[in-house]
C-alpha cells in the first residue's frame, strides 16, 4: 500500500470510528458550523484519543500532497496566523460577534468597537476564516463558528471596553493564552535565529538572556518585566492564561497516577513552587488525611491566604495546609517530607537551574521520600524510544507506519510550547531521556512513569539515589 493510500485509510477508518462512537451516545460529532454546546465539547474531549491519529494523518497528507516549496512557504507564514488571532482577541471580535448572533456583522461595525482600521481587520478575519476560525457569510460580513466561540470571554462587550485589563478574569483562560502567544510571545520568536547564532547568547542558560530579551531590549527576565507597574495588563493576562494550561489536570493528578491514598495519615506532602496552591486544593479535597505545605515566593504565599479562606475555609486554620514563603533555590526547610511535588516547575528553568532546584530537595529528603515531577514529557519523533523506554510505565503504544509514532504528541502543543519556552526564558520541555539525566544529576532516580492522555502532563515518580 502506498503512503497516500495508507494515510487515506487511516483517515477514513478513523472518521467512521468517531462517527460510530458519537452515534452510540445518541449524538453527532460537531462540525465547525455546529452551535457551541457543553455536550459537544464533552464529546470531543472524550473522543480525543481516537481523533489524534486522524488529525496526525490529515497533517501528513497535506505535507505529502503539497509541493515542498508550497508547504514550506505556508509554514513560514504561520506566525502571522498567530498574530491575527491576537488581533481578533484584542479587538474583541469573538464577543462582538457573539452579541451580534447568527446573522453576523459587517466588518465596519466590528472594527468600530475598538477603533480598528476596518479594511485591515477585514483581511485579518478573512485569513482566519480560511483556517476555519470565524466564517465570512457574505462579502465583508463575519460571524462566529464553533472554533471562534472558544475565544469568547462571555462578558458584555461594553464592560470589556470600559476595563480591558479585567476581561480575562473568571474565564477559562483560552482567550488570554491565545493573546499571550500571538502578541507577547511572538516578539522574541522573530529574533530567535539571530539570537541563537550569536556566540554571546546562543549557548546561554540564563533566564534573562533569551531571544525575548533581545527583542524587548531588556535585561529583565520575562517575569520581572511583567511585574513592572507599566506592564500590569501583561501580568494579568499571563495569570489568566495559565488556567488554560493547568486547570484541566488538577483533579486528574489528585485521583490518578501516584498513590496518594496509600500514604499514611499525617504524611507530609510539599508542593514546591505551588503558586497559590491549586493542585494542593485538589489533593486536600480528595485526601484530607494528609498534611500539606504549599511553597512559593513570599508575596504569592500571602496572596494564597485569602484564596484558601474563600475557597477552602478551615484547611489552613486547622493545620491541614501550611502556606509557606520559600525560594526553591535556597535550602529546603522541610526535612521530614514524605513527598515533594514539583508541578510545571522544571520546564520553567534551563538544566543549570532545574538541577539546583531538584538538588535542594534531594538534600532535604529522607530515604523514604518520594519526588513526583508533574510536567510535559516530549516524545521522540523516532520509533526508538531510547534507554529510558525500559523504565516501568515509560513505553507508549505506537501508531503504525507511515504515521509518526505518537500522533497525540504530533498534534499537541508540546513542541510549540518547547520553542516558546526557549524563546522567552531559555527553558524547555524535556524528553524522558533528558529527564532521566537531569534527575540523576540532582541525586534522584526515576522509578516509574504514570502516563496520562494528552494534553495532560505526565507524572514521574522518583526516589533518592
TrEMBL record:
Alphabetical keyword list: Methyltransferase, S-adenosyl-L-methionine, Transferase
PROSITE patterns (UniProt xref): SAM_OMT_II
UniProt domain O-methyltransferase dimerisation: residue ranges: 74-153
Annotated O-methyltransferase C-terminal domain residues: 267-380
Coiled coil region boundaries: none
Superkingdom as given in the UniProt entry: Eukaryota
Keyword Ribosomal protein: no
A GO BP entry: methylation
MF annotations from Gene Ontology: O-methyltransferase activity; protein dimerization activity
Protein's UniProt name: S-adenosyl-L-methionine-dependent methyltransferase
Amino acid at each position: 500500500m502506498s503512503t497516500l493510500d495508507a494515510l487515506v485509510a487511516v483517515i477514513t477508518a478513523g472518521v467512521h470510528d468517531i462517527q460510530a462512537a458519537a452515534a452510540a451516545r445518541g449524538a453527532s460529532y460537531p462540525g465547525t458550523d455546529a452551535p457551541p454546546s457543553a455536550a459537544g465539547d464533552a464529546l470531543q474531549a472524550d473522543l480525543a484519543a481516537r481523533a489524534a491519529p486522524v488529525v496526525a494523518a490529515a497533517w501528513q497528507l497535506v505535507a505529502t500532497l503539497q509541493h515542498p516549496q508550497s508547504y514550506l512557504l505556508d509554514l513560514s507564514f504561520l506566525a502571522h496566523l498567530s498574530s491575527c488571532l491576537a488581533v481578533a482577541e484584542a479587538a474583541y471580535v469573538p464577543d462582538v460577534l457573539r452579541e451580534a448572533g447568527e446573522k453576523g456583522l459587517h466588518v465596519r461595525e466590528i472594527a468600530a468597537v475598538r477603533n480598528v482600521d476596518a479594511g485591515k481587520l477585514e483581511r485579518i478575519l478573512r485569513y482566519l476564516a480560511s483556517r476555519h476560525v470565524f466564517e465570512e457569510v457574505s462579502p465583508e460580513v463575519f460571524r462566529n463558528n464553533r472554533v471562534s466561540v472558544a475565544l469568547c470571554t462571555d462578558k458584555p462587550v461594553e464592560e470589556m471596553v470600559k476595563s480591558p485589563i479585567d476581561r480575562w478574569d473568571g474565564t477559562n483562560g483560552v482567550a488570554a493564552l491565545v493573546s499571550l502567544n500571538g502578541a507577547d510571545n511572538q516578539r522574541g520568536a522573530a529574533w530567535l535565529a539571530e539570537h541563537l547564532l550569536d556566540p554571546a547568547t546562543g549557548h546561554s542558560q540564563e533566564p534573562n538572556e533569551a531571544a525575548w530579551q533581545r527583542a524587548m531590549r531588556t535585561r529583565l527576565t520575562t517575569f520581572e518585566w511583567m511585574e513592572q507597574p507599566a506592564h500590569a495588563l501583561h501580568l494579568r493576562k499571563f495569570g489568566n492564561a495559565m488556567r488554560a494550561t493547568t486547570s484541566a489536570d488538577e483533579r486528574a493528578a489528585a485521583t490518578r497516577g501516584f498513590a496518594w491514598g496509600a500514604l499514611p495519615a499525617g504524611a507530609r506532602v510539599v508542593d514546591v513552587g505551588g503558586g497559590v496552591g491549586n493542585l494542593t486544593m485538589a489533593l486536600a479535597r480528595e485526601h484530607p488525611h494528609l498534611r500539606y505545605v504549599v511553597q512559593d515566593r513570599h508575596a504569592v504565599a500571602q496572596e494564597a491566604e485569602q484564596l484558601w479562606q474563600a475557597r477552602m475555609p478551615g484547611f489552613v486554620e486547622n493545620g491541614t495546609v501550611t502556606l509557606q514563603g520559600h525560594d526553591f533555590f535556597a535550602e529546603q526547610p522541610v526535612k521530614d517530607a514524605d513527598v515533594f511535588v514539583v508541578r510545571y516547575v522544571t520546564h520553567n528553568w534551563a538544566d543549570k537551574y532545574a538541577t539546583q532546584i531538584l538538588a535542594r530537595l534531594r538534600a532535604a529528603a529522607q530515604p523514604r521520600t518520594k519526588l513526583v515531577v508533574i510536567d510535559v514529557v516530549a516524545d521522540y519523533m523516532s520509533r526508538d524510544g531510547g534507554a529510558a523506554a525500559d523504565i516501568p510505565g515509560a513505553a507508549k503504544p505506537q501508531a503504525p507506519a507511515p504515521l509518526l509514532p505518537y500522533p497525540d504528541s504530533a498534534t499537541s502543543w508540546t513542541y510549540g510550547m518547547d520553542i516558546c519556552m526557549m524563546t522567552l526564558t531559555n527553558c524547555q520541555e524535556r524528553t524522558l531521556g533528558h529527564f532521566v539525566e537531569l534527575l540523576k544529576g540532582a541525586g534522584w532516580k526515576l522509578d516509574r512513569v504514570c502516563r496520562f492522555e494528552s494534553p495532560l502532563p505526565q507524572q514521574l515518580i522518583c526516589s533518592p539515589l
